[in-house]
Amino acid sequence: QVQLVESGGGSGQAGGSLKLSCAASAYNFISCGMAWYRQAPGKGREWVSSISTAGLTTYAESVKGRFTISQDNAKNTLYLQMNSLKIEDTAVYYCWAFCGGRSWIGQGTQVTVSA
């Protein structure tokens, strides 16, 4: 069983920054592939960014150059630094993990960006 708890969401202004965190209960966190997804109002869930067990990071085109994914293995925590926020970044952001052959997803944290 892996529990993922997101935090750091809230309201921000266009052009501003927010940092999301995801605390994972996985005992083998360092062996888990991790990612962030988001779901905007009235839309399907979309992939935002991933970090592999080797530390390789990838990003959706819509966030490339603005968002940075990282993790602290000592704290079992995944992060998403979001800069140059846009109104279209408004969504519920979910932490996702692939550990031991299974995938897990958190409850999500709301991010609202206003002009």
Biggest sheet overview:
7 strands, mixed
Q: What percent of the residues sit in helical stretches (DSSP H or I)?
A: under 10%
N-to-C order of helices and strands: EEEEEEEEEEE
| Percent strand | over 45%
Count of beta strands: 11
Which stretches are low in confidence, meaning pLDDT under 50 for 5 or more residues running?
none
Mean pLDDT across every amino acid position: 95
Radius of gyration, whole Å: 13 Å
The count of helical stretches stands at 0
Structural class: mainly beta
Rough outline? globular
How far apart, in Å, are the first and last alpha carbons? 40 Å
Blueprint (SSEs and pairs):
Elements: E1 4-7, E2 10-13, E3 18-24, E4 33-39, E5 45-51, E6 57-59, E7 67-72, E8 77-82, E9 91-99, E10 102-105, E11 109-114
Parallel strand pairs: 2-11
Antiparallel strand pairs: 1-3, 3-8, 4-5, 4-9, 5-6, 7-8, 9-10, 9-11
Short characterization:
This protein is mostly beta strands and 115 residues long.
Structure, described:
- This protein is mainly beta and about 120 residues long.
- Helices cover about 0% and strands about 55% of the residues.
- The protein contains no helices and eleven strands.
- Strands 2, 4, 5, 6, 9, 10 and 11 form a seven-stranded mixed β-sheet that branches. A four-stranded antiparallel β-sheet has the order 1-3-8-7, with no helix packed on it.
- The chain is globular, with a radius of gyration of 13 Å.
